[in-house]
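Below sits my pick:
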Amino acid sequence: MENINEYKYNKAVERVKCIKSFYTHLTIYFLVISALAYINYSTTSFVWVIFPAVGWGLGLISHGLRAFGQNLIFGKDWEERKIKELIESDKL
């Protein structure tokens, strides 16, 4: 029983770290894109800031989906099912 509680605790700690990391990533994104937008509008009429904003934004969206448990590729709780499957089949 203690192993299960320890496992759940470790998963919760990992999830909190991932969410914290996402918020840090989001803050840095807004600071850097804002600075780039200022530089862009101060120097040229071509709106090149959209390219890093969209590219980085896609990565940020992916990070957010992972942090909040929305895994589009493997589905909900895929990791948990795979761990149980491997433990039961003794393929470790």
